[in-house]
Write the structure tokens for this entry.
Amino acid sequence: MIHKQQRIILVIILGIAISHVFFTLFVYQSNQALHHQFKSIHNAGYLAVPNSLISAELCRIIPAICGALFFSTTIGATLTFLSIAAAWIWIRWGKFLPYLIIPFICIWIMVPLKFFNDGIHPLLIVWMIIAPPILFTFTFKWGVPLHWPSTKYPWIILFPLLLILLCFGTLARSKSDLFIDMRDLFLFNSTAGKYISDFYYKYTLFPSEAFKSLYQKQLKTCHIEKIKNHRLKHQLENLLCANDYLPIADEASAIIIVSLMKNKLIFHNRDREVYQIGLQTFLSQPSAVLKKVSKNSDAYFFFRRLVAISLLTGMPVLLLLILYSCFYTLTSFFFRPSRSSVIAFLGCFIFVGWFTIMLGIYRHPLCQEKDLSSNLVSPSWQLRIKAIKTLIGRSLDIAEYHFLLLTPGNGSPSERYWTAKALGFSKKSETFALIHTFLEDPHLNVQCMALEALGRRGNKATWSTILNQLNSSSSWYVQWYAYKALRNLGWKQRPLH
């Protein structure tokens, strides 16, 4: 017979599974649309990103299944916990304080209405409508233990939970990127972490493309409706290409349709008019106008905000519950349930405390300029990275200092990553050669920083090197950085004529 505490775990698994099914279909359909766009761009003679190696993956279900984990473990987890919380409140206080359930009902009604109004994918609307009642019903039917965990002090769960939320909330407010620091400290320097990192960088661009705005997407297709003035049409094509809106002949495949009426440009996103502006205004400020077009076309702004909030709430809580389950399962072989529960939560508290302290130390303010020389050759890789970050933050040339010379595959991936990035601020010829060695690094993140460094150095002679890297790489992430480097060097797509 399944214990009530095990049932709540089953409800959580059910919630994540339901979310994952919907998000897998969502990402898969997005991948199909992206593959169609890739073919349109490629057939029109433009440089397509991702390349044909990745484009073939878009038609497979595995990238959609793996990519959907990003959504199901963030916003999917948050919706699951809210549904369980609503059922728990109703079971415990529904007879006496029924109005406590009203906020949850409002969320359940208002969020799908907002999704519908924004015009996001119908699958997400259906998911938001049907998932909460299912989870509420199973939680109510199976019975959530009123005093959970099974201990005289159920409030002990709040300590690690509040600590991890406080940790993420506080650290996320600092200037440096919280998740990059977590990656450097906990993922790059362990075997298990490397597998997690590789999985993340292999599959997360698939779901991210599904809900990006046009401004955030690297390449967009557009179609210019019949304009008799060939000189004006050519001018519009050049301006659109310069902003990565690639004109194609097939109107049905284009994301944005551009038409001219009474000296005004009208922009349509599929069948919906999103913006119109005077022709001369667009010719003088194309980037600003296209940002406005992107903003008015953005159906996923609210959804992205929910995912971002869930990344700092739902996902940490999910990870904490997984950690608790591991501790509880191990200790249950030796202790009774109430004591196992206390030990599990104490274990979570200690782990989260250690995690917070380690991350806080690593994210300590950068070193002083007077300490740069000594820190760059310090025995501690953390101090060396802080020194390199200081050089980057102040745009200083790393070649002016004596630093640890790393080669591809040697030393910490984190240190090679930041060293490659710092080389972009150098003007020395010997550091230029070192960047090229990092292009062969076995770690794709180091390759990305080497490409970024080439883009920052401003040498257009590296176009061919970057193009070779883009066309030969099997990593979409590397291709993404390669294209950014090309654009930073002034390379542009060529419009159709």
Notes: The beta strands are 220-224, 245-247, 256-261, 264-269, 272-278. The chain has three domains: 4-208+304-357, 220-299, 370-488. Residues 281 and 355 are 52 Å apart (CA to CA). Residues 370-488 form a domain with the Leucine-rich Repeat Variant fold (CATH 1.25.10.10).
